[in-house]
Amino acid sequence: MKTLYLLNIYFQLPPGTQNPDDNTPLDFSDPFNIITFIVLPIVAVVLYFIWRKRNKKDK
């Protein structure tokens, strides 16, 4: 019974916070979302591999 009470307290959201179910899905018709969530991560990964290759070559 005590475990159930602790789980109930754990799963409650504090008042005034946003519920994760309130989020809307990404709208990929907006150019900002395309750049932020697709282009920038790809560019970051490519730059990381270039940087890593350059560091290995310098050693």
From TrEMBL:
Transmembrane segment boundaries: 32-51
Protein name per its UniProtKB record: Adenylosuccinate synthetase
Sorted UniProt keywords: Membrane, Transmembrane, Transmembrane helix
